[in-house]
């Protein structure tokens, strides 16, 4: 028998981003609004050609208007969110094929949200500008972390802060994330009485969230993807007469996913 085939057939269907394909959408936009956003509060412009070439597929779109309304000194500011969410459908299909249909879900996701403020950024007093942007960033981070947690991730941490120059020339404030998915392991039978169990482990996850000002509004973009490859090479002896070697390598390439996600974020406007 093929140890790899048997092992992959029994990989749990639960995947670390499965339940949170719309982490960015639900986390940043909240519950959908029953109203219709105005043209001035439209969606962000995403790099459609990059998304198409990379095998990405839009899976959701929502608006919340207003997302929040808060007083900052003498001015009361309301914010409307319009968010688009994408999954790497090509990667999902590849991993589904490699695991004989057992691993299904959104392994990599990308989201982009336009935050339209009322009054507009140009009309917010300088003294209130910093607190307004800080409020948007704070809410975005908290909601993003909450959605990662609801997806089953553990050890969620803001790993570092950085800056990123986007394609339109503005500077985005970036929060880099690390997390882990508690992989449940694999158990597959050899006979009616004997089976081989591969112990579970934590699978690393990497994400980022970027916030910047563009054309009178605030943009938020980011996502999450596998932070390490899943490779197992285990030998088990369920009986004195049987030795089973299991070799499983999903061929995940975190550096490539990270570069692609950053390129998508930078091209958003």
Automatic annotation (TrEMBL):
<feature type="compositionally biased region" description="Low complexity">
    <location>
        <begin position="32"/>
        <end position="42"/>
    </location>
</feature>
<protein>
    <recommendedName>
        <fullName>Lipoprotein</fullName>
    </recommendedName>
</protein>
<dbReference type="InterPro" id="IPR006311">
    <property type="entry name" value="TAT_signal"/>
</dbReference>
<dbReference type="InterPro" id="IPR045396">
    <property type="entry name" value="DUF6517"/>
</dbReference>
<dbReference type="Pfam" id="PF20127">
    <property type="entry name" value="DUF6517"/>
</dbReference>
<feature type="region of interest" description="Disordered">
    <location>
        <begin position="32"/>
        <end position="55"/>
    </location>
</feature>
